[in-house]
Each structure stands twice: as structure tokens, then as C-alpha cells.
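User: Teach me something about this protein's shape.
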Amino acid sequence: MDRKKRNGWKRLTALLLCILYGSAIILSTTGCGRTAAEVPSAEGTEEGSSTEETESSVAAMGRYMESTTPLPDGADSEGRTMTMLSDNRLAYFDAAAGLLLSEDEGKSWSPAETYSNIVPQDGFVNNSSIAPDGSLILCHVQSLENQELVYNIIGMDTAGNKREVLGRLEDGDYINKVFAKSETECFGSTVSGKICSIDWENGKVNLLFTLSEQPEMMAFAGTQLLCLGNSGVAIYDTEQGSMLERDTVLDDYCKNNLKGRLNNTSGSYGGIVLPGEEDTLYIADSSGLYRHVRNGNVMEQLVEGSFSSFGDPMLGMCAMVRLESGEFLLLTTGEDLIRFTYDPNEPTVPEKQLKIYSLEENFSIKQAMALFQKQNPDVYVKYEYTYAFLEKDSSMTVTDALKNLNVELLSGTGPDVILLDGMDASVYSGKGMLADLSPVLKELVDQQAVFENIASAYKQENGTFVIPASFSLPLLFGRQEDVEAVKDMDSLAAVVEKLRQENPEGSITGAFSARQELLQLMEVNSVGWLDGKELDTQAVSNFLNQALRIYKADMQGVSKEELEVWGETERAWSLGGLAALTAGDKIKIMAGTASNMLMDMGAVSKVVDEQGYVFDLWPGEEGTGYLPMDKLAVSASSTQQEQAVNFVKLMLGEEYQKMNTGSGFPVNRAAFDSQDETDGEMSMGTGWKVGGKDMQFSYGYPTEAVTTRVKELAQKAEISLEGNVVLEEAVVEFGVQVLTGSMSVEQAVKEIQQKTAIYLSE
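Assistant: First, the predicted structure itself:
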């Protein structure tokens, strides 16, 4: 397998592993008035004292600024790591470039004389670690023909001699992360939280202790082994062979701030712990860089993540070192080595501020913020959202959140840029809350830079107040005669009923609960539930009646075992997820949204090739179309109109849209076309077990025919199929009762009408 093939397989395997294994912070500006080397020891914090008072006079000035240096020629992200050696040379390693040394802190590099290529040509390097003495350890993963993964621990001592140990433990668990303290002291961790030492001499791994979770990473401070995880930093003394007392302030920070940020099984880290001078620790994560005196009561923020590379969601952290000067070097999955240098003349927080808001935490916004911040270091981009990803605050409803936003916009205190996903754009444009983006749209259309039919989704006679940066396509996928037979919900119900007669067992559509059935079906149908500001009761009634037909036919053949595996699924399936189930012979016709060329259309392409299925735009009651995503708007009352418009332009531009890996096809044409560009081979897969039977499905890049077809459909999609989120929630709430037999359609429509009456009248 050549290097390009290895890299592609490695990246997606790491992603899949992530998917499968699935206190207040005291933010002082102490370090912002001095270089990190000059920050006092802060021992006094044990008594509750702090340096806030003495530093308040300089808190407004002083900030760590970024600069970059290109990484060595031929560098690759596979197995990337870096450390400072005991002789003050900087050491770098990755699977492609090998082991390199620098005597000028990363400005120039030369190969290590002792290193010979120890990386096998098949498989990939999951992660690696360099000890201060220059020895190296790496975790190498190989896939056997039966798709079993074999983990080997490969090392190189200071003389350049290769050594190897099987990473599997006696109980079948395996080491997938490795860390080196010296050529004789190396350690590894397993997904289940086992921490082991590597016994090179006897060719085995020895269990030291077990944590409740796998640590994100491990570091060394004297005889202590520090294990960073979601619940804090566990400390093990290797000489005493015992765990030490926990640092409660550090643990509280991790519990409250690292949850959801740690990568767990990928080749990079979501958080880094770095021992510093004396009893100091440095913690880095997407919220920034912090300094903490062990057992003190302060987590001191040195670098703010939102306007630094720490907060860039496109960059995984691979390693970090602190230089004697007090500067920091950060190694990421990007193309450059990043240096943080303290500048006392820079404002601690940029004076210009740009406020961005979304209802739910949005990955695309975070990516755009990181790029915008680098291009505009004098602007502080502040991002606020109501709901965190996968963790909603039950005390705040969507209606409450939207009312708060309305008040802020009308009073002029609201955000400058608004991501309107999950909101009714017409409410804000109709009340004059949004700025006219017609000049932006005209420029993009004149340059033929975007899909005009999609970018113009919100174009009105009096202006364009919203522009979507991405979109998804609702598609039907199945046998040609079945796909062609679907014209609306009634004909879809007829096809499902026919397929049930032909297939007595298993799901027909892939929905395994009433909620999931409704979520799938409303993708293309909820757009027709409103007639102006009035609820179209006939349209809602028809939807529920047809959904009931489909659900009854669907559930007749679903087994108890299938319900145990998929019955609690809360979200609608993507088309890629449905295709995976189809290849496992679980469903017969798919109606779902596609928003990613690899994850969705790669899976679809596999089924097209193997089963001869076809796909087309999914017609709802109003016709065929697209679902706009990342819907951008600028507040009419914003005092930062120019910066806000520039941010919108960035999110619609080719540079950002090419790098965006969030959900949604890019509306930018050049970025859309770049999805055809592939890096060697790619292999993805998933598996499940139902009724004692193992099912597996793997796929790679979509074929050229499939990508061409997707572009054709994107260009011919007629209308926006976006519905009203408040109305959709009400239909799901009462529709579930209809499908499960506890409420009639007529009663459900009355309940929906009553629940949404006030909202629709506003």
C-alpha cells in the first residue's frame, strides 16, 4: 500500500474510532502582564490570595501572538509528534518524514543520524512519542484480511535499534496510544483505560493500573505519570507504584470544560497537559492555553482559544513544548509549526468585536471564525449559542431562545452575524431586523461563483436578507421502478405498502420508531404546512394520515432485536446511514438527506454498484428541492456592518468552503467541484450486531458517475424545502401519539394548531 493510500485509510479509521467509542474557571490576566517565564509562582493562592489586584493595571494590554514556520519537507500528519530533547534540540517525527532534529527551534531541520525507517509499509501509525533522550515509540495498526485490527508497539532506542512488542493484552484488550519517557521507560493505554508499561526486554506489556476512561494523553514530571482525561488529571508515581492525591481545581476544570473536546482515539489530541517550571502545569484545549500551579486555586488563561489556533476546529493538537524564553511551540495537524510569543504592546482582547449567534453550536461557524481571526487579528470574534452540541439545556426552549434573540436585535444589543439554522428567516427579515445582502449575492452570481438557485433561496423583491453557505439534498434511493413511482406522500406510502408485501421481514424505510419515521418524512413535506402565517390544517392532516400508513407498513416486519439496536435513535438517518443499512439487507427504499460527498455518496455509490439502485430528488407535496444550511444573516442594527459582511463573504468564499468539513454540500461551485479531488484510496466502514448476526459494511470514495449526478441534481433542485422548526416540533410531539395509536389525526391537528397559535400570530 503506498503512502497516499495509507494516509486516507488512516484518517477515516481514526474518525470512525472516534464515532464508535463514543466548577467555575478563574480566568485571571496574571500572565498577560508578563512573559510566562516571569509569572510568579502563585503559592499564595492556597490561602485564597491572587494576583488579580496587582495585575489589574496592566490587564488591558499584553497578549500572546502567533507566528508560523513551515514544517519539514515531506511532512505528513500520520503519527506526528514533537518534543524538546535534553540537549535543547527540537525533535520531530511523522510516518513519512521520519525523525528530524532542529537546532534553531524549528526554523531548519536535518535527519537524525541514528534513525532508519522503522515504519512498515502496510497499515498506519496511529500515534507516536519521542523521549527527551531521542528514543522513539509508535503504535502501528495493521488490518488483516478478516478486517481484524492488529496493534503493534514499535520502538527505536538511542542507538537506532528497532524493537517491537505486540500491543495486545492477555484479556484481548490492546494498546492504541503510546508515550515515551526514555528508551527504557515507555507506556501505553487502552480504550478501556488500562495503563501499561512496555517491557522491551521480555517483549510484552505489563498492566500498571486501570482508570475509568482512557486518558487523552500522558506526560511525565519527574517520577510522576500524568494522565489527562475528561474527569481530570490522574497522577501515578512510578517509583512508589501508587496513585497520588488528585488536584481538585485541575479536575474541576477538566470535568467542566474538556467534555466533548477530547478525541480519545484519534492520532491527535483534543487536550494537552505539559509539565512546566517547578510545580507548574500547562493545559491546552480548544478554549485556549492555561497555566496552573499544582494544588493552587487558579486556572490562569494565557491564550484565548477563540482568537488563536487552539480554537481552530480544523487543527488537531499533536504536541506542545515550552521554550526557555517563555514562548510556546504548538504542533498541529496543519502544515505549519505555530509559535506563541508574548507581546506586551498588544491589547489583551482586541478592541474591535464581532458577535456571532446560532441556536445550536455549529462546527462550520467555528471553522470560519478561526480563519477570519487569523486574517483579522485586530478583531475579537465572540460566538454565542443556546444549545451545545448533543447536550441541550432543558430549561430553555426554542421559543424562549428566539424571544430573547428578538429582544436583543430590536434593542440593538444583539449579535452582528446570525446563523438562522433552526429559525424562521421570514420573521426576522419581515420585521426589518436584517441587513440587505443583495450586493454580496449579486457579486457572487455575476462571478458564477455559487449555485444561483440555492444561494438565492431567500431573494425577495425588497432585498436578500439571508444567504445559505451550504445545503443538503433530500434524495430517494432504491430500485428504479420504486423511485420513479414516488411523486408525493401518497405514492410513497403505496410503494412502502407494496414493498412490505414483497418483503415480510425487516424495515422498509429504515425508521424504527414513530419519532424517527416522522423526522424522516418531514424533511421534504413540512414546507407545505403553512399558508402565509396560517397553519394549513389540511396539509398537516394529510401528512399524518400518510405517515400513519407508512409507519404501519414499516413496523409490521421489524423484529424485537432490530428495535433493541435502533429503536431509540433520536435523529433522522442521513442517506449514507440508510445506504449502509441497505447493504446489510435491512431496508428496501431510502428517503433521506445527503450532505457529504464521502460519508453519504460514498456509501450510496457502493450500493449503486452492487445492487443497481438509482437515486433522484425526493418529491414532497410541494415538489423537489434542497434544504438550505448555514443560513447567514447580518443584523440591521449591527455597529460592525463592514466586518459582519466580510465574515459572510468569507463563509461563502472558495478558500473557506474548500476547507470546511462540516455538514452540508458547499454552495460555492469551485469548492463543490473540489470534492472530486481524492488522495489515493479511502476505506470507511461500520458494523452492527442483530440477533447474534454480525453485519459489516465498508465503502470508499464515490464514483465519478455518482458525483456528476449529485451536481446535476443540485443544479436542478427547484425550491427550498425548509420548514418551520417550531411547527415541526409540535407535529412530532403529537404525531408520535397518532402513529402509536393513542391519538386520532383530527385531535392531533387541533393540538398542533393550539400549541403554535401564539407563535404564528407574532
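Now, about its shape. Residues 1-59 have pLDDT under 50 and may be disordered. The chain has three domains: 64-347, 352-465+629-670, 471-627+696-761. If you'd like, I can walk through any region in more detail.
User: That's plenty for now, thanks!
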